[in-house]
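User: Here's a protein and a ligand (shikimate-3-phosphate). What would the complex look like?
Assistant: Let me lay out the input and then the predicted complex.
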Amino acid sequence: MEARHAVVGGEQIDRVLSHLGSRSIVLVGMMGAGKTSIGRRLANLLHLPFLDADTEIEKAANLTIPEIFEHYGEAHFREGEERVLARLLASGPAVVATGGGAFMSEETRQRCRENGITIWLKADVPVLLERVRKKSNRPLLNHPDQGEVMRRLLADREPIYRLADIMVASREGPHQAVIAEIVNALDALLRQRSKP
Ligand code: S3P
């Protein structure tokens, strides 16, 4: 609520919501980019539900993500991820935080195009590594050289993340600044697209 008054005007919020209609704001980007923490705050500011794909996958499977990877493998996780995102994207408007690999699916990207506006939260490898360091819940980073994994994943994924509608740099510092940038970019894009 505070952020609403601090950085983004109510009029702008109302305009974004009205142009958004039933579509969702979908955050994509690497592990550690801040999709969940930024997404939760953005949803709060816009008074939209916040949906976290990883959490929804865990609920649906009644298993944690490391357990899904361990017992069934990554391919099975990706299938579940596609199904869960299809469901979440059909229930907009909301702010949806995706897992770092979700946007690599052509099917998911198509659904995002139909039902959402995608925002790539872009951050550099040192920032990503610093942010993921504290948690051990990401099976892909269960590797002695997390830096190497992160650089390889980013190199593979960056050309795909670039397909998102909007790119916002996820820097260090107050979340409000990143959120204000997202709202401004959304406002500009949605106004542009709503022109006859
Ligand atoms: C993954 C990212 C994770 C989670 C899973 C796989 C990835 O989500 O979906 O561990 O492939 O980058 P976060 O991006 O929220 O960490």
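Summary: The longest strand covers residues 116-122.
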